[in-house]
Design goal:
Structural class: mainly alpha
Number of helices: 20
Helix content: over 70%
Number of strands: 2
Order of helices and strands: HEEHHHHHHHHHHHHHHHHHHH
Strand order of the largest sheet: 1-2
Radius of gyration: 47 Å
Largest sheet: 2 strands, antiparallel
Distance between the termini: 139 Å
Strand content: under 5%
Shape: rod-shaped
Length: 420
């Protein structure tokens, strides 16, 4: 209230002062333009300017107020389109998650041009089209996704690679994943998919070269990486001979195998799976003496019943020496079923038939196995002991898993009791 009174006194004072000045000296203003002149006092000119300012201010405000409804309508229409796009996109994603492919494709593709995030719509539409087997539409949606979001190439490429795998085009999927890997070298998902594809394509060399990156970025567990690495080298050893020229000599084959074995990482040269693979490759290369020497050294270095089992199948140039060696091992491990089976096989190579029978029977007593029963049955049949051979064959069949259905059988009637 005090402020209003003070303002009122200031206005009255200013008005009195200006009124006095207007009476004392009204001033004179002459405005001339072309043949027209305008004469007035300075106070009238100031009043005119003040009124003109007020009118201009009022006109500008009126103009903006009249145009405001048009802007509000445009904003309302824009918001309405955005809400519609969001609603239809939501319905499309729900349909996609529920496997309603046709509806999902229609909703997502139609809404994509007006959606806030068209990339999501196009990728969803591509998946829906792929699930329906529409190859052309799938590729078209991927292309549109790249147009609206070229910076999302990794995300688009990952889904595209998945589609290529589903189509059975693994070679193209590998190309796609390699390109993505060059764009995102540390993307663990890309590396995992690439490793899986290379395993399925048996690209062992490429997979081995990828292992350091898999290990560095911890894409898989240590156990998984070790299993992959050992399997890769085992497969390469197994396939090495088939890649050599047909005219390769036994000596050339052995040299190639030896070179490959020596190239193994130190963490793998004690792996029993690889030892067995290498030994079998030497046997395939018709080098039983080298296979026997190598395997004997491995067994002495680290005892493994799997190696013992394989040792009994090697028919070297000196099987007598092999047999005597195994017998010496038996003195320390007389109840080792695998070692007894090995001794039985080597006894057969040395034509020590009765000793072989004893070893087979002892091994079976400790640990029955189909191989031991079958080998014993064949040996007994050759020795003329048909009854025992038939019994051994029957025991082998008993160990074989039977998947046949259980059917009713006739009950035998004792005819002698029936007559009495």
């Amino acid at each position: 209230m005090k402020a209003i009174l003070i303002l009122l006194f200031v206005v009255l004072g200013a008005g009195a002062f200006i009124g006095e000045k207007m009476v004392q000296d009204p001033g004179y203003v002459l405005i001339s333009y072309d043949n027209t002149t305008l004469e007035t006092s300075i106070w009238v000119l100031l009043l005119f300017c003040f009124v003109a300012f007020l009118f201009t201010h009022w006109a500008v405000n009126l103009f903006f107020k009249l145009s405001l409804p048009t802007k509000q309508f445009g904003l309302w229409r824009k918001n309405r389109i955005a809400r519609t796009a969001q609603k239809r996109t939501y319905k499309g994603l729900i349909a996609l998650s529920e496997g309603q492919w046709w509806q999902a494709q229609r909703l997502l593709s139609q809404t994509a041009p007006i959606a806030a995030q068209p990339l999501i719509n196009y990728l969803g539409a591509a998946k829906a089209a792929h699930e329906q087997g529409h190859i052309a539409n799938t590729d078209e949606f991927f292309a549109k996704a790249r147009e609206v979001a070229p910076e999302a190439e990794v995300s688009i490429g990952l889904q595209e690679a998945e589609v290529q795998i589903d189509r059975g085009n693994n070679a193209q999927a590998v190309v796609t994943l390699k390109r993505l890997h060059s764009l995102a070298p540390k993307h663990t998902g890309i590396l995992r998919d690439l490793a899986d594809l290379q395993q399925s394509q048996k690209s062992w060399d490429e997979l081995i070269s990828l292992l350091p990156k898999l290990r560095k970025l911890q894409v898989m567990s240590t156990e998984q990486l070790f299993a992959i690495e050992s399997n890769c080298h085992a497969q390469m050893l197994s396939n090495l001979l088939s890649k050599l020229p047909v005219e390769s000599t036994a000596n050339a084959k052995v040299k190639a195998l030896t070179k490959s074995w020596k190239a193994l990482p130190n963490t793998l040269n004690q792996n029993s799976k690889l030892i067995i693979t290498y030994t079998r490759a030497l046997l395939e290369a018709e080098a039983p003496d080298q296979a026997e020497k190598f395997l004997r050294a491995q067994i002495k270095g680290s005892w493994d019943n799997n190696l013992i089992d394989l040792y009994g199948t090697i028919n070297s140039s000196d099987t007598s020496k092999q047999y005597n060696l195994v017998i010496s091992w038996l003195k320390n491990q007389p109840e080792n079923a695998a070692l007894l089976l090995c001794a039985a096989r080597l006894a057969m190579f040395n034509q020590k038939w009765q000793e072989a029978v004893v070893h087979f029977e002892h091994s079976i007593t400790l640990q029955p196995s189909i191989d031991a029963y079958r080998s014993l049955a064949q040996l007994l049949e050759s020795l003329g002991e048909h009854t025992k051979a038939l019994e051994a064959s029957h025991q082998a069949m008993e160990l074989t898993e039977d998947h046949s259905p259980k059917l009713p059988l006739p009950v035998l009637v004792d005819t002698a009791q029936t007559v009495s």
